[in-house]
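retry 2 of 3: previous attempt timed out while embedding TXE. Reduced batch size to 1 and resubmitted. Inputs unchanged:
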Amino acid sequence: MSKAFSLTIGDAAYAVDSTFDVVNPSTGAVVGQAPDASTEDLDAAVAAANSAFKAWSVTSEKDRQAACIAIADKLEENAEELAQILTREQGKPLGGIGSRWEVEKVVAWARFTSKLSLPVEGIQDNEAGRVELHRKPLGVVGSITPWNFPLLIAMWHVAPAILSGNTVVIKPSPYTPLSTLRMIELMSEVLPAGVVNCVTGSDSSGSNIGGAMSAHEGIRKIVFTGSCGTGEKVMESAASTMKRLTLELGGNDAGIVLGDVDAEAIAPGLFWGIFINNGQTCGSLKRLYVHEDAHDQVVDALVAFAKTIKVGDGLAESSVLGPIQNQMQFDKVSRLVADAKSRGDVKLGGEPGEGLFFPPTIITGLSNDDSLVSEEQFGPAIGVVKYTDQDDIIAMANDSDNGLGGSVWSSDVEKARALAGQLECGTAWVNKHGALQPNAPFGGVKKSGLGVEFGDEGLKAYTDIQVIMS
Ligand code: TXE
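retry 2 succeeded.
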């Protein structure tokens, strides 16, 4: 890519002294340089966002809804460019449920958000007095995003923040900063200066922009999507400034398959529930429990479907899955698979490929004690546990510190729904897994996070309540 990428701060591209390389995980080639910002550059971004907040926070909601539509239009006009950058730095294929799909969702999310509203709520209006609940924007929102869905997660953070009258400083993951830099640059073309700002840093150069944001006096809220460990650090650093927090952290979602399923019919849904984005998805299915009556048929059907999926360079139009995004994640998946191989039966894959490629891997004969089941793999490998007693299965599924999502698969939807309600997780699906939609609140219980995103509930999290009594 020949394009130079710059920070967006205030009304212009903002130059910094040093950069760091961003690498294509499919090939190892350097695809661009991202600015390696200092904490002084972060201060400049926060100052620009604070200065823009004064005017932006008092614009009408109608104008901010129109701004979301303008953003959607602008990104739609530039969709192919964004998808190309995303594939080059993230590795996911252009086609299928890949980069073009992600950009489409980004545009759709901005359009959906433009229809949301936070009207004043009347709590009481009688001879004793009038009580109104107003929702007020917070100020500068700091958004910290990961490398799995860099553009979509950025939109999940930015759209509700600005619709509710806040301004934003966003920091993408150092693994995938370029698509966000370009997206925010495009967004800034249709917004007043300073409403959205983007700062990138390498994490290894010592500036720790994410940590500095979490502690920053000028930032009123952090919305963070990433690992549980970093989420804890964000929460600690945010304490002294009493920041509002939305934390969407790791998951280790259980999928429970009952004995009555039609194995062939559920195989495609199960496959994508597990392997969407190469398994590098917070809310994907990460532990599969199958009743003994259906176990062999389900595993066979899953393996057969997986064999139809082409893994390759993200830029090849024929690829359906790409490589693992980075070496850290590749090493984690390799370790968990190596451990599972020594304890269970490899039904598919199991051997690392070239570079960062790792084939879809399915290993049966495991239990909750095996690390591929008990740890979040965040990659293209699934451990399968066979169970016999339906009374035990909910306890096995709930035996986790995480609680992001979960699913129950059955021909009897009412029975599945009842079991789904017993799962300790923020979203429980029936006969699907990982489907997210902009009108349904999404968030984790237990160590999977704090608060929810999406819809009216997600939007409210970008505001403080003020009660006016008269
Ligand atoms: O995440 P980090 P990493 C899980 C997955 C993966 C693990 C580690 O299991 O193996 O996390 O991935 C920024 N204060 N998920 O190391 O560190 C960082 O620069 C504030 C699940 O990439 O959490 C990046 O922008 N921020 C997850 C963001 O935090 C800090 C998606 C996320 O990186 C910081 C990705 C600090 N001290 C990985 N240090 C999901 N929920 O979808 C780093 N960051």
